[in-house]
Amino acid sequence: MTIRSRKRPMTITEKILARHAGLRDVWPGELINAKVDIALGNDITAPIAIERFREVGAKKVFNRNRVVLVADHFTPNKDIKSATQCKIVREFAREQKITHYFEGGNVGVEHALLPEKGIVVPGDVVIGADSHTCTYGALGAFATGVGSTDLAAAMITGEAWFKVPESVKFVYHGRLNRWVSGKDLILYTIGDIGVDGALYKAMEFTGEVIESLSMDSRLAMCNMAIEAGAKSGIVAPDGVTRSYVEKRAERKPRYFASDHGAQYESVREYDCTKIEPQVALPHLPENTKNVTDVGRIDIDQVVIGSCTNGRIEDMETAARVLKGHKVARNVRLIVIPATPAIYQESLRRGYFDTFLQAGAVISPPTCGPCLGGHMGILGPGERAVATTNRNFVGRMGDTTSEVYLTNPAVAAASAVKGRIAHPDEVSR
Amino acid sequence: MKLKGKVWKFGADIDTDRIIPARYLNTSDPKELAKHCMEDEDPGFSRKVRAGDIIVADKNFGCGSSREHAPIAIKAAGISCIVAKSFARIFYRNAFNMGLPILECSEAADDARTGDILEVDMSTGEIYNVTRKKRYEARPVPPFMQELVSAGGLMKWIKKRGFV
User: What domains lie within chain A, and their CATH numbers?
Assistant: First the structure.
């Protein structure tokens, strides 16, 4: 089906939403009902959705191929209550014959798993009862986090209501400095605009730096759009997208791009030659500094993993920095490959040898410590460097503990030095 | 719908980890969640709060996670309504979907202090601080959102539309 000429130029976000709402065009602020291609839940959010689903008397999900359930947060089950939550999800998945249900040896961190498996494809509208659902914008999809009630409604109707967001364009010029990745670009951006700097808006990432950015780095950037309060983050599909998607897409991708003359709420431009590896200090992701400006900060733990930075590129970077080094005495390094495929590929490439020789603990894929679940909780006053996405009070454990957010290279270097360190201090 | 209650005042960027820490997300039982509501921000909050009380907060209330456990914990703790300068968008959505009344009003949020008595008229968006004898107009709630609230939340709304 070809799209007829439109009344007005639209952004990529508006075009995807218009198509899914069956409208010729949409305007920012307009409330629409749109078809969803994928509705996602996890072991924390799905049980409430399942309860709502049953309460209202629903019998069947709208499409068993389009409801995705991933038991990744408190798994392998950390306690009896978590096991009970997972059981609710598992039994529902069996009853509804859900195609994409993941647990045990199949499970990966949801936002690493769905792109990798080709379950989300460019042009999709995706809702997930998880705030980091915005990750899939990296594929050129409209994806946003919702609550469990929204998930329940979408599981029944295959639709969701949206207020069409205004779009903000971010243009990244120049070229990246050594050790600077998508994580640093998004931390820098959040530092610039604040944790509600893009509240209710769609962040559109553009510019020559984005065009040459790997898919793993794009996923890390879009992942943290929510940390600026955004509804979604998006990168227009290009050659990088096509080569990533074409070997794995389980449905036909639709490639959208913003029209010339599309309206943006604002445009922000950055010179990337001035961006160093970033650190977000406690207790908000907007508290960013250059890694060279943080001073001496001794640490107790390092976590490399999560839906932000648990992908193969992140494992590769961590291994490159750690090769031939030992983790500092009194520092615990926990490495969490985000999916079974990343785990296996890391093993195949010899990264596990590097990690183990350095003295790291390698965890199975799980969200685990990122949200203070398990597999690396912080005690009173402890400090962690983490490649995760939030450093709120008590996020990883005790309320007096502290989380410093960085990219995997800084995290690995910090593990070696026992304090927050620039990767150049360890690996030249 | 008119609500009247005692104010509990909070600051800016109150994230969902502070509303309900993740260590309690291994259950979705509202009573259990209510016990730990705001625990890391104000220990003992759940024991002090009375049915009908109102939370007033600065900007970006409910930022962070999508966990519906946050508005569930607040509602089950007895809070009747939240007035803030602004809300994080998933929290805003969740509140309407589950029928927890919320309003955006910068001036009312600035003036109110813990212990003040507030009257809130959800249908007009009028807020009256009884203690300070000051009236405010909240940002109007879009008609669709009012429809959700009057239907009794999203699930009842989709039922009305014949989906189940």
Answer: 11-275 (3.30.499.10), 278-425 (3.30.499.10)
